[in-house]
Amino acid sequence: xxxxxxxxxxxxxxxxxxxxxxxxDNRPDLPGGKGLVIAExxxxxxxxxxxxxxxxxxxGFPAKLESFLAEPANRAAVGETPVYAVDRxxxxxxxxxxxxxGLLAAAExxxxxxxxxxxxxxxTVVVLEGxxxxxxxxxxxxxxxxMGVDALLFGNGCADPLYRRVVRVSMGHVLRTPFAHFGGTxxxxxxxxxxxxxxxxxxxxxxxxxxxxxxADALVDAAGRPWDKIALLVGGEGPGLTEHAMRxxxxxxxxxxxxxTDSLNVATSAAIAFYERQRSLR
Amino acid sequence: xxxxxxxxxxxxxxxxxxxxxxxxDNRPDLPGGKGLVIAExxxxxxxxxxxxxxxxxxxGFPAKLESFLAEPANRAAVGETPVYAVDRxxxxxxxxxxxxxGLLAAAExxxxxxxxxxxxxxxTVVVLEGxxxxxxxxxxxxxxxxMGVDALLFGNGCADPLYRRVVRVSMGHVLRTPFAHFGGTxxxxxxxxxxxxxxxxxxxxxxxxxxxxxxADALVDAAGRPWDKIALLVGGEGPGLTEHAMRxxxxxxxxxxxxxTDSLNVATSAAIAFYERQRSLR
Lengths: 282, 282
Hints:
Chains A, B: This is 23S rRNA (Adenosine(1067)-2'-O)-methyltransferase. Chains A, B: Pfam families: SpoU_methylase (PF00588). The structure is a homodimer. By secondary structure, chain A is of the alpha/beta class. Chain A is 31% helix and 18% strand. Chain A has eleven helices and twelve strands. In chain A, the strands form two sheets. A seven-stranded parallel beta sheet of chain A has the order 8-7-6-11-9-12-10, sandwiched between helices. In chain A, strand 6, helix 6 and strand 7 form a beta-alpha-beta unit. Chain A starts with a strand and ends with a helix. The model of chain A has no long low-confidence stretch (mean pLDDT 94). The A-B interface holds A 139, 142-143, 145-148, 171, 173, 214, 216, 255-258, 261-265, 267-268, 271-272, 275-276, 278-279, 282 and B 139, 142-143, 145-148, 171, 173, 214, 216, 255-258, 261-265, 267-268, 271-272, 275-276, 278-279, 282.
């Protein structure tokens, strides 16, 4: 690897990739106007280097860089990527807030894998509609990765999965777990779901509706055998899935809830569905 | 109910119960040195009024109070509780930050129900050890309430369940779902778990350990019948349960995880266990 370059001037343009991180998702100078992919902390930075996203710069406090680069695997992954050492006050001024973790990396976005290609090898996918909360999307990635979901597919109204906060909450799993947005061939996005059905997926909506089937029954056929391929649909907190999306699925499934309580958080509901899916396959 | 009193002076002592809310958990002037119970927003404020905690004051922007009190049930619940109307700038100065929800209530703490009394009618309880994160505790309450868990019991090293952030994240379920701390009769808290066993509970530890039993198998007996009474033990993120606590249980249970991923968030793991428990009882 190259050497570590010490930077003391917060205005140094070599730090531009980690400048104003609170507003980093809006970068009209980059293709698509979206920001770079930002990873924070040694675990997630390591996952960024191991990912398909080409890293442009590694930035950190001297001690944090030293400890990160002391791992031979990390040193090899960093290779010729520029490495900039900055002190805490300088980084705070550049990033726009006190970045106490003291280690971050910025990478370029890459073209998404098409949905069709993802479906070739997937057996369990989750489809998101109207999930606008970054923390929920991050948790969905973490839970999906942890329980063997093959991919996340994005319908209408979802927040950007590569936003900085999503990367952090997902613990970097958004950098490893395949995801894709539907192509937008149709006027109503729900018709895109036909692509899943054509690929042999059983489509299951998650809903708090008490008249829906028990989740455990929805993931198996009439003989109690698990469906070979399952696509679980989840909607945003509050409105849930649109009626249009639910109508496009084969069955509506519910997690039984105690009376007079609130529906579960979307990432929690999804985690339960992922668990039930793995349970049905054991 | 009494009238709504307009207050314009941020120094007015009648607003002391909602002063400096970022530091409100430390109140040396109150019994035990802990803060009042603070509820924010109409849903949680309504649940506070319906709870066992005696409300001392309702405070809000004039329009928020009006809309809250327009509900006859809320008006009846408020009764003779003092109601103070303040504008946004005044409330921000009193609370110490911009409280955009514009409606909050403060109540007194009450004595906890003893563990023994809670166990008399409970069939499913969750026991927490070392869960220090307020958001996790709040989510645990929300998930427990949603999936019919009867009570939360606190072992060593947990954060205060009545902290403001817990109340908010739990959506007020901490005000409705029974909880208690173990009495501290023994030097090591894990011996308190004997009280659960004496009451007929099967004790189940949740652990990511791959050699543990599948969760689904841990909640039923050898014949596949659900145990009558189950106590689920969960530990804090990172360290998990202590070995001492796990040794005091009847069985260790795991949620199967994909290789090379991170363990689930504690509230998410618990939600899956609550789901499996209800599933075993259906």
